[in-house]
Amino acid sequence: MSTMSRRGFLQNSALVLGGLSLTSLVGCGGQASGGSEGSAPAAAAGAGAKLVEEGKLTCISNMYFPPFEFMDEKTGEAKGFDIELSNAIAEHMGLTANWTSESNQSFDSLVPTIKAGGKADIAIAGMTITEDRKQEVNLSNPYLDSNQSLVIKKGSGETLKTLDSDEKTIAVQAGTTGADWAKENFPKAASAGNIKGLDDIITAMEGVSTGNFNALVTDLPVASYQINENGFDGLEIEEEIPTGEQYGIAVSKDNPQLLDDINAALEAIKQDGTMAKLQKKWFGQEL
Amino acid sequence: MDARSRSVACTIVLALAFVCALPVQAWGLTTNKATAKPNEDGGSEVIGGLPTRLTWEGTVEEGEKVSSIHLEIPADGSFAESTTKVTALEGLSRAPVESEVSADKNTLTVSFGEPIGEGLLIRLEIYNMTLPSTGGDVVVSGTYQNQDGEQKLKDSDPPIKTIANTPLQSMVNWLDNQEWVKQWNANQFLGMFLKPQLILTSLSSLFPGWLLCLGIVIASYPFAILLGLVFALMKISRHRLVRAIAIIYINTLRGTPLFLQIYIMFFGLPMMNINIDNNVLGIIVMAINSSAYLAEIFRAGIESIPQGQYEAAASLGMGHLQTMVNIILPQTIRRVIPTVTSDFIMAFKDTSLLSSVGVMELMMFSKNLTSVTGNMTPYVTAAIFYLIVTLPLIKVVSTIEKRIAKSERGGGPRPKAKAKKAEVAVVDGQAVGAEPSLVEALSAPFKAGTSVMGGTASVR
Q1: Which residues have C-beta within 8 Å of that of residue B453, sequence separation ≥ 6?
Q2: pLDDT tens by residue, B111-129
Q3: Are both B76 and B210 inside the same structural domain?
Q4: Could you list the residue range(s) of the whole structural domain that residue B134 is in?
Q5: In contact, A119 and A61? CB cutoff 8 Å
Q6: Does domain A2-145+246-283 have CATH number 3.40.190.10?
Q7: From CA B258, how far away is CA A131, in angstroms rounded?
């Protein structure tokens, strides 16, 4: 028991440090792996998996990505497809998903935070599985298929062709596959420094609405949800870009057991119909 | 855009589409495009000879079955170390695909277990391949196998623009291979915050952002000072309405975050169909924001001038305006220099907030670089850039403050001070004719043991 409480103390201090995210990146990296020796299992399914907080699956995400993750405008509570999926996963592992006000980070800091460890167990953020990310962290089996989309202001007449110009600016969310796609497919705009990597996609959408940017590139489900359900009806999807990318959940490479548990839970969620139910709820159909 | 110009645009687009559609050739597998991921550290160019990711897309046409694809790039390029991700898509949905990939120097062959049927989009993402190191336009060509045998693939169009290796990139590559660099980066802290390769690339790619930061704050500050002075004078005005306007202006701007003001201006103005260049708008926002703080600084400065100065001026027969311009303001300037400099430092740092709305300043560049590299070094380099400006200014502020404190205490070399005192008294006495020059007022705090402040007492 005494070792348990000491570990708890270490982890609490890690959480405090987590507030200073820079510090946590370094300060907790070594400790997360060091403090886990011979630790007691948190739950039956979570045997061997190291957790930041006992009995909880601590999650991080970027909360400006509806319908995958967003904050309730009244309560500030985390909501969305990914949130409910994380709840289901945690349930299968005999844990509870831990979403707090500290769960919200900029998208580009998610992978480094998981890699450094100590602040969160998983990042679930509509994150595409890519080779680059796989070099930094482990990614779970795919849980959802996605594509990219090119969004413009209604009636602006911009197209894939017109946008590749050094006079056009294209907003993206920094660190996303959409950002990569834009840089690769609008080389002239990219050379002119006109691919703007913003912190979140809502700012990008506001910017396109007001004409600050000529277009934006983001994941298709997000674009259609924002335009059809969330009041950005001044925008339209100019191009659905088939990329066939797939979302995965990021887990530290130091935590292979947790990855296995999550993959098992994902499989179970698909089998028992929870996944289909969630997709229906958030996308109106099974994807 | 009015309806007519839109219809013209539509016609042009239609005409273009028609022209493009005319020379239709019967491709069984149409090459849609080939692109490469920019691999310039901190830039957006595709550099030949360095690992990049090639994406090739083609659509299987009606009645066709494709059993293998063979891609070819110019001889100097290489697929040797590459790994390939194969995706087949039906519309937007992934289709099951089995494939085997074999790479040989500059050719790559993807064979499908089950031939790919009509209407499917084939996407090949080839990681860790290199394009020819000489740079220039690269065309991806090749062949494919359909039910009738081997067919030629349409060359990719437009070609991929690549550049030869840059000196900077060569230096980075040189660093990559150094033993000490490897050991340095193996340390988690040093590798995450002070990676030598990234310091080098950040220094060059953050530089334009730093210039823009400086440009914005330097361009906005004169306006801020003027506006601030106007509102400071308005706030001490005798007319209640004028005072009220100044108080509302100053308190609203000081009482709300700059971040919010930026959002309101950047998103609000375009909604009213007022479109201003981002950089100019940045200057305007910074000028308005600083003006409120400066107004308070100036007001405090003006009010700190002893009542005796006004009385002395009045006794010399000066009017209100004359007193202000010749007696009060020159003394105020001296007193507010440290606080104004501090405010300038704040304003310079606050330009970072403009990154949130897409102004390409220092923070924006470092954020982009960090998001691409997943490393904190660009932020540390940005900190260096900020400090280059702020540290000397901080030093200036503390020097001036020391001098002023000393002279207000009546410190400094005694005998000299006596002589100066007389001089200054004369200067002040002459104020009706020749006011103390601005240069003198500004430079006074820097001069050793100056007793300009003491000088004011002699008028009293």
Answers
A1: B334, B404, B407, B408
A2: 998 899 889 999 999 999 9
A3: no
A4: 26-162
A5: no
A6: yes
A7: 40
Amino acid at B340: V
The reported pLDDT for the residue numbered B449 is 43
Is any Cβ of chain A less than 8 angstroms from the Cβ of B34?
no
Amino acid symbol at A138: N
CB B216 within 8 A of CB B361: yes
Q: Are B185 and B71 in contact (CB under 8 A)?
A: no
Question: Strands (DSSP E) along B117-265, which ranges?
Answer: 121-130, 136-138, 141-146, 149-152, 160-162
Q: What are the extents of the domains in chain A?
A: 2-145+246-283, 147-245
What pLDDT score was predicted for residue A184? 93
B331 touches chain A (CB under 8 A): no
CA B82, distance to chain mean position in Å, is: 35
Nearest to B270 among A29, A157, A210 (CB): A210
Torsion of CA B247, B252, B253, B258, to 10 degrees: 170
Residues present in chain B in total: 460
CATH number at residue B114: 2.60.40.1290
Name the band, by pLDDT with cuts 50, 70 and 90, for residue A42: very low
ipTM of the complex: 0.76
Cα separation, A85 vs A105, in Å, equals: 19
- pLDDT at residue B272 in the model: 87
* CB-nearest partner of A242 from B9, B45, B89: B89
End-to-end CA distance of chain B: 68
For A181, nearest residue in chain B (alpha carbons): B37
B92 and B157 share one domain: yes
Give me the architecture of the A147-245 domain, per CATH. Answer: 3-Layer(aba) Sandwich (3.40)
Contact status of A169 with chain B (Cβ, < 8 Å): yes
Distance CA A33, CA A115 (A): 11
**B115 assigned to some structural domain:** yes
Picking from B403, B397, B401, B418, the residue whose alpha carbon sits closest to that of residue B345 is B397
Residue linked to tokens 């002040």 = B428
Residue to mutate among B371, B373, B377, B379, with most A CBs inside 10 A, is: B371
pLDDT at position A205 over 50: yes
Distance of alpha carbon B413 from its chain centroid, rounded? 48
A78-79 and A170-173 beta bridge pairing: unpaired
Q: What is the mean pLDDT of chain B?
A: 84
Question: What is d(CA B320, CA B326) in angstroms, rounded to the nearest whole number?
Answer: 10
Can you read off the two tokens belonging to residue A109?
């800091």
Report which residue type is found at B279. Answer: N
